[in-house]
Automatic annotation (TrEMBL):
<dbReference type="Pfam" id="PF00188">
    <property type="entry name" value="CAP"/>
</dbReference>
<keyword id="KW-0519">Myristate</keyword>
<dbReference type="GO" id="GO:0000139">
    <property type="term" value="C:Golgi membrane"/>
</dbReference>
<dbReference type="InterPro" id="IPR001283">
    <property type="entry name" value="CRISP-related"/>
</dbReference>
<keyword id="KW-0472">Membrane</keyword>
<dbReference type="InterPro" id="IPR035940">
    <property type="entry name" value="CAP_sf"/>
</dbReference>
<dbReference type="InterPro" id="IPR034113">
    <property type="entry name" value="SCP_GAPR1-like"/>
</dbReference>
<comment type="subunit">
    <text>Homodimer. Interacts with CAV1.</text>
</comment>
<dbReference type="InterPro" id="IPR014044">
    <property type="entry name" value="CAP_dom"/>
</dbReference>
<feature type="domain" description="SCP">
    <location>
        <begin position="6"/>
        <end position="139"/>
    </location>
</feature>
<keyword id="KW-0175">Coiled coil</keyword>
<keyword id="KW-0333">Golgi apparatus</keyword>
<dbReference type="InterPro" id="IPR018244">
    <property type="entry name" value="Allrgn_V5/Tpx1_CS"/>
</dbReference>
<dbReference type="GO" id="GO:0005576">
    <property type="term" value="C:extracellular region"/>
</dbReference>
<keyword id="KW-0449">Lipoprotein</keyword>
<protein>
    <recommendedName>
        <fullName>Golgi-associated plant pathogenesis-related protein 1</fullName>
    </recommendedName>
</protein>
<comment type="similarity">
    <text>Belongs to the CRISP family.</text>
</comment>
Amino acid sequence: MGKQSRKLKEVLKAHNDYRKKHGVPPLKLCKKLTSGAQQYAATLASTKVLQHSPESSNGKCGENLAWASYDQPGKEVAERWYAEIKNYSFQNPGFSSGTGHFTAMVWKNTKKMGVGKATASDGSTFVVARYDPPGNVVNPGFYEENVLPPKK
């Protein structure tokens, strides 16, 4: 197993540790999502612009992105996304731009994920996680069913 795939497993494991806290089933790593995420990470690294892919914009997959000026460990990326839980209101569930990474990670109905990472010429790194089926569906009622509060 290469260094890259170990890093990807690290991101998956972090997701599943957090998902367990919320009482939702673990995600499986998907080859197809991973190759798409890897390709897109490479695109981001070449353009150095952090923006969502057309695939995610048209609802084909969920997508989380991360940028750092250094080689970011997978676990740290997942921690940063998950930290948005502090801005999420379980009393008033729904989409907000400050909690999208968190809700994508713990979305109950999401079954599989893919992860890609690429390094830009300046040494900064881009991480792309893709989710299927996508979470963050903005239909009313979906958040109550899919974003469950962490167990005590």
